[in-house]
Amino acid sequence: MTESTQAGRTTESGPPVAPGPASPYDGSGTARESNARYKRLIADGTTGLTVAFDLPTRMGRDSDTPHASGEVGRAGVAIDSLDDMRVLFAGIPLDTVTTSMAINAPAAPLLLLYQLVAEEQGVPATALTGTIRNDVPEEYDARGRYVFPPKPSLRLMADMFRYCRAELPRWTTVSVEGAEPYEQLPAAPGLEERQAERLAKLRAWRCGDRVHRTLAAVTAAAGGDDNVLPPMKEALSAGATVGEVCDALREAWGADAPADPRVGRRVETRLGTAVATAVGTV
């Protein structure tokens, strides 16, 4: 199949949704709704934006999977692909705003999507500023599950530290906040169906061979010692979804599973040492 250079470059499908009231969870609901909220905030003089992602995105699952049913666009915005991130930050000057992302274990692919959108806007990665939360213990405390097993989760954090030191030197690469309650905001009517439709269009237009090849490179890097972020960026640029990239990591590291609270406590105890070690080696 010939890859279309226009695939995913449309605005979000479905009827316009009026922006809702301001919320501590800036970025809840649809990418278009969140984009409108960001533009209002910037017009009012705000230079710092906050994105909270919905539960499926935080768990590294696409909106059209059974895992996501009933949770798409609740407690945060649904971001499945580069297309969604384009909609979320369309018309936002990423060289002058600071963005904070609440995501945890899938922090790396979401940060890479942000970098890709900035590069499409002509903004170099070295100009990007912001913070990404990748608080692994929160997954145990707040959800009772983990996205990736503890040791690979810490390895992914260390890979991101190294990558950002070279590519995004002004970015704050870790924020540990601990467990927090999730604000259960209602999803926009029909959002789950529209996200599934967008994913179907993306998969129909992208080059399947390229996606398969780049995802295989992610799995290979995860199974070895290479930094997983460069092949991950290639896969996302090729049209792979966040869920597919996380599945490629799960292929090497194992699937998510209910967490043993004792493991959560061990991870929390070891987190400070692991972060200090990783920072000391980059």
From TrEMBL:
Domain spans labelled Methylmalonyl-CoA mutase alpha/beta chain catalytic: 25-179, 190-254
Family matches, as Gene3D superfamilies: Methylmalonyl-CoA mutase
Domain of life, source organism: Bacteria
A single GO molecular function term of this UniProt record: cobalamin binding
Alphabetized InterPro entries for the sequence: Cbl-dep_enz_cat, MeMalonylCoA_mutase_a/b_cat
Coiled coil: none
Record protein name field: Methylmalonyl-CoA mutase alpha/beta chain catalytic domain-containing protein
Organism from which the protein derives: Streptomyces gardneri
